[in-house]
Amino acid sequence: MLHVVLVAAVAALVGFWGLDQANIGPDELIYQDAGLRYVLGDTTPNPEHPPVAKYLLGVWQLVFGAGVTSARVLMGVVLVATTLVAFCWARAAFGATAGVVGAIMLATTHRVSGADFIDRQVLLDPFSVLFGLSGLALLWHWERQRRMAGALAAGALLALGMLSKASAATLLIAALACVPWRELGRREVWGAMVAFAAAGIGTCLLAYAPLGGLTAVQAMLEFQGAHASAGHPIVVAGETFLHAPWYALVWFAGEVVGWLALAAVVGSALIAAGVRWRDRATRVLVLAATGPLLVLSASPVALPHYTSAWLWPVLLLSGVGVVEVSRRARSRIARVVAGGLGALLLVGPWTGVAHVVSIAPTGVARVDAAMAADPAPDGVVLTVQLSPWITDPNIDAAVTEDERAPGITAVIVGDDIRFPAPPALLDAVAAVEEPLALDGVLVYLLDEELSTLIGEGEAR
């Protein structure tokens, strides 16, 4: 019981601390609003993704109030639930100590995309991780107990994962490790496989019924196909790509987790895979990581938060790995190696928890306060070298990307190379005003409208 309380407390700290302080992420308003509209009868928003996570977001907001902060509280609940399921599975498969360490690694390791933890943002991915992890854990448990209810529940849960984010379908690769291939001739095995498939298919049909059934699925697949063909501009290793290179997800993982922390996590997970390979749970977790990583790496679309699809099994296994090294350390050298690995593994949780407890508005989310403190009259804000999905949710003032728009009295310059700014514009504002640096974003608060300044500069 003490282990459960410890794991839940740590996950709750990460899941709920300062949820109202973080910048609003690019997709948070989309999913928060879509969820609310779904349960109110309008299922037209966001048809490009499956509906289950949005159903849950909508129901939560009906009960506890609408808004991003309310939806983020549900994300905290999802994180705590994910951590507890991971602990219970790892404890059953590898022992209590490995369960505690693995679950805490999963909850606390730094994985910040944008301004906050992926798991704390209103995204679909954390739901798919919770349901996918739970489904695999139950399927592993079914293989040991052979109870039909376990196969039914596993099929439904894995389907819910796919119905939250389609990429969770890659976890079916890991499910193959739970199949007792040498016993396929037994009726109970075939019966369980049929029950698993039936539960999954039935769950999918029920979830899509309000959206029009197979027609909605076809529309989603067509959209995703067109999106993949058109591409999505991203920055990887300082270069802009319209179609993601094959190494994009690994690069994003290094940026999201931190390269040193990622190296320690992967190294410890590989140790766990080597020394505990005979355990079925190990093989399931290895496939749960490599399957999504390989499939998603082949996709022409990649975003930083996609790392959550394959990172959770690695984090869980990293806890198992460091515990195994500690248990097997007999010589002084082995104990030094074990201590060094443990110290390196602490980098991820240390930076993750430090991020959470110090969370505060950053960059563009501080622009309104800066404008209010400036004596010059407030007007329209021109944003350059910044994504509109970052600026629009976080700035209350009127925002434009058109330098010719009237009434511009503030210019915000970011570092997003996907949206390069005209050099003449940057020179014009830099010549008349010293910028205010806000967490890497430069803010020029002008004493007169930008059009006037540009006109005077051209006249000179």
- The proportion of strand residues reads 5-15%
Uncertain stretches of 5 or more adjacent residues? none
Order of helices and strands: HHHHHEEHHHHHEEHHHHHHHEHEEHEEH
Number of helices: 20
| Count of the separate structural domains | 2
Q: Helical residue percent?
A: 55-70%
Shape: globular
Q: Can you count the beta strands?
A: 9
- Sequence of strands across the biggest β-sheet: 6-5-7-9-8
Distance, first to last CA = 76 Å
Largest sheet geometry: 5 strands, mixed
Give the C-alpha Rg.
24 Å
Please state the structural category: alpha/beta
How confident is the prediction overall: mean pLDDT? 91
Tell me what the structure shows:
- This protein folds into 2 domains: 2-357, no CATH class; 363-459, no CATH class.
- 62% of the residues lie in helices and 7% in strands.
- The protein contains 20 helices and 9 strands.
- It has helices at 2-16, 28-39, 52-64, 68-94, 96-108, 125-145, 148-164, 171-175, 187-208, 214-230, 248-257, 259-275, 280-297, 308-328, 332-345, 347-357, 367-373, 388-391, 423-432, 450-459; strands at 112-113, 116-117, 234-236, 239-241, 380-384, 399-400, 408-413, 436-438, 441-445.
- β5, α18 (388-391) and β6 form a beta-alpha-beta unit.
- α14 packs antiparallel against α15.
- The model has no long low-confidence stretch (mean pLDDT 91).
Task: Output the keywords.
single chain; 460 residues; alpha/beta; five-stranded mixed beta sheet; two-stranded antiparallel ribbon; 20 helices; 7% strand
Briefly say what this structure is:
With 460 residues, this protein is of the alpha/beta class. It contains 20 helices and nine strands.
